[in-house]
Amino acid sequence: MNKGVLYYIGGQKHWDVLITSIWSLRQVYKGQIAIMIADEFGQQIYDMIASDPRLSPVIGIEFEPVKYRKFTGYMNKPHMISESPFDSTIFLDADTVITQPIDDLFPKPDDPVWLTKYSDWLSTGNKMRSRIKKWEHVEPDRVARQLRREWWAINTGVLCFGSGAKSEHF
Length: 170
Fold this sequence. Notes:
about 25% strand, globular, alpha/beta
């Protein structure tokens, strides 16, 4: 099975934590890693990572990100599903630190998206409610639906999906 870990880099904010995350991952995982490259600065960071034998090998994939005034990172994460070069993917945010083997996280290729919950936060709690309401001008109907009942808050920093998820509409 073609499986691997996927990261995303764009802009100048997270390059140092991305390097730390990949280094921590390489301590427990020798498999494939791909980095979605969103801009020129991301390309520079990718080149640096690819040339470091402690972090490589890595696959670089140019990506045209959705650009929006706010929430750009959140708006691009669903696109990672269709852009992944793997049949079984673990997407990790740049600020993750891996401390133990991850092999059990790889889904089967026909599996849907696996989401992880964020702590014990709920969509109806004060913090999540205010974050969800910020999207009201973008998706008012979906926001209303999310606030009508309790849903677990999603940790968007760890997503796992098989290639079957690519056929969904994200």
